[in-house]
Write a structure and sequence with these properties.
Elements: E1 2-3, E2 9-10, H1 15-24, E3 34-37, H2 41-57, H3 62-83, E4 87-95, E5 98-105, H4 125-132, E6 135-141, E7 144-152
Antiparallel strand pairs: 1-2, 3-4, 4-5, 5-7, 6-7
Helix pairs in contact: 1-2, 2-3, 3-4
Length: 155
C-alpha cells in the first residue's frame, strides 16, 4: 500500500505503480511512506523508488543516489531475512542539507552491528551502512522499529 499525500491508501503491485508511489513521497517532514510486501522483488522495488526519488525528482548527484540505493538494499534485505513481517515501509525525506531514509517494520527485534570475518558470507549490511552513511540508527516505534540512515547533501 502507498499512503498518498491526502492519507488515502491504495495497492502497489506493479512496477508502474511502484514508480507512481515514489511520486507520493513528499519533500517535507510529514509521514509519507510506501508500503511494500515482504517478497524478494521488494528489494529491487525499494532501490528503484529510492533512485527515482533522489535522482529524478530531487536532482541529487549520482554518488549520493548510488550510496542511498546501496544502503536501502541492505536495510530492506535485513527486513526480508529477519523481520518476519508481511509488509514493511520505506520513507524518504529531505531536510536542509540531509536526506533521511527509513525502513520500518513491525518487529521490535533490534539489528546488531557485529564484526564480520573476511570469509563469512553474510553479515556485512550494517557495517556497510555504518561506513557509507553520515549517520544511522534505530528508533523503536509503538508497533515495531525504524532503521534509518542519513546522507549529507553538499553543494
Amino acid at each position: 500500500m502507498a499512503v498518498t499525500a491526502s492519507g488515502s491508501r491504495r495497492g502497489v503491485d506493479t512496477d508502474h505503480e511502484l514508480i507512481s508511489a515514489a511520486r507520493d513521497l513528499r519533500c517535507d517532514a510529514t509521514a509519507q511512506e510506501v508500503r511494500l510486501p515482504n517478497r524478494p522483488e521488494a528489494a529491487s522495488a525499494a532501490r528503484r523508488l529510492t533512485r527515482v526519488h533522489l535522482h529524478s525528482r530531487w536532482m541529487l548527484g549520482a554518488e549520493l543516489t548510488d550510496n542511498a540505493v546501496l544502503l536501502v538494499s541492505e536495510l530492506v534485505n535485513n527486513v526480508l531475512q529477519h523481520a518476519g513481517a508481511q509488509t514493511f515501509s520505506l520513507r524518504i525525506r529531505r531536510r536542509r542539507g540531509w536526506v533521511r531514509v527509513e525502513v520500518r517494520d513491525p518487529s521490535r527485534s533490534l539489528p546488531c552491528l557485529l564484526p564480520v570475518g573476511a570469509l563469512e558470507p553474510t553479515g556485512r549490511g550494517l557495517c556497510l551502512v555504518n561506513h557509507v552513511s553520515d549517520r544511522w540508527g534505530v528508533d523503536l516505534l509503538p508497533l515495531g522499529k525504524s532503521v534509518w540512515f542519513e546522507l549529507r547533501v553538499t553543494g
